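New to this. Look over this protein:
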Amino acid sequence: MSRALLLALFAGLGASASAAAKGAGLATAQDSTRYERLEVHVTAISGTSVYLDRGRVDRIEVGDRVLLFPTSGPQVQAVVRAVSKTSSRVELIATGSGLALGDLGEVLIPVVRLAEPTAPAEPISSEPQPTVPPRVPEHLPERPPWELDLGGVGTDVPLLAPIAAVQPEERPMRWSGRLWFDLSSSEDREGTTSGYDAYRTGFDLVFENAFGQGGQLEFDAEALQRQLSSEGEPDESESRVRLERLNYLVGGDRERPDSWQVGRFLSRGMPEFGRIDGIEYRHRRGDGSSWGMHLGALPEPTDESQTGDDLGIGLFHRWISDGEETVTVQTGYQKTWHKGDADRDLFVVTSNWRPGPRAFLYASAWLDLYGSDDAAKGSGLELTQLIATGTWRTEAGHGYGVNFSHFRFPELLRYEFDPVTAEQLADDHVTRFGVNGWRIVGEGLRLTGRADRWTDQDDSGGRLEVGISARDRLYDGGEVRLGLFQNDNKYSSGPGLRLSATKDTSRGWLRLSFETLETTNDNFFGEQQTQASDTLRASWDLSLPRDWDLSLSLEERFGDAEDATTLGLFVQKRFR
């Protein structure tokens, strides 16, 4: 698809969306704000699953849209898949995001949800309260007639005692989800002109009480087509259909502590184990803790999701300290076989701790148990992955964060990583440590800072960034940010500057950013030793009537060795 055609498409969509927004009566920025943007931070990353440091107490719900902002790169779309009391798990709509621990994000929460009453945060006082007559609305809706026969109920029984809760299998069938389309088109004009187009579309649907047994049917699939063209070369194309999830869950609700899930699903007891083609049983105890097991095939983490070569059985347990889930600890063990041969013995321990209303701590450890057949590792336990993060927010609006991670290659028969040598299996590792923080220095003014340090088997480096942001200072309904950073990467290093601006308007949420950096490349000479690179990004996110969402993006890269343009389009229809 040519750039001119895409630009025309963008212009037409922009005009249609603006007309829809205007026709819906969105005349001002305040009127058009259908969402509040809740700031979150990335605490862990596992494949396309990303974990955030806020959850149900912050009004996050399954299905909420999420925007994530990598330290260097365009914003990333995601959707909330699971929510606990203090954290949430989101799934990336596209892979290869470049996200890192501590990165900033925003969860879009409907304003109407925030207006709903919540339980009081503090115990209700036992002191006598002044009597305030209730406010009676001017117009009361007509109440339907009372249909329940209470003639045989004694006067000593509470009035509502005979009323039984509606059982899950008695509820009407409901469905919700989303249908989406994602387009990315790039043109690289540096040297030989080449183009890359990617078209992705899919749906994610959930049917409640689908078969009259009070269960839940989940269906999530997508189709992708890629096209690559280059001057003087034949065009290349690739198409595929990917089944993310197709499963049926019964039980696990308020009335039934036992649950069964069958099909292709992400383990509810231990999401770290990935997708499973099989069956999972889970039991919830009276104190809120749970345990269970699963058995099935493990699809490969590739675009094709081939399955059948790897089989696994897993056991898991989740412990909570109290009804507020102040501390949670999940433990799990998974044994796998590859084409009939014993493969991986994996132990996973994760924990969340909220020591205060504005503090959050997360830790996750993966340990691989090796035997005599694992020549590169030798027998014994090895810590192959460790992640620990913490964030603290003050009443004044200040915040601080810390993160640590350590990774090593596990020795596997299963295809999960690019092939590596025995020497790499034995020696390669990456350890990272980072701190970040922000401080309010005036009305709408905030200082930010971030420092990261990494080491591996050969080298070390890091990143340092400081910035300042002004909200509703230069103009209403938006924010301007200025950041300075210094990179020290594996093969390159250099300083950079980033300037961004956001604006909430009656036509949607606008973002503009400009990034410039100077890179010194190792083992290069002459003009390629030091190169300048500039990136201009623009995005426009709009929520339209009837639960439609539209996002447009533009990225222009230019400099000493770059001349490329990328256009993006994301359209989504939500069903409630």
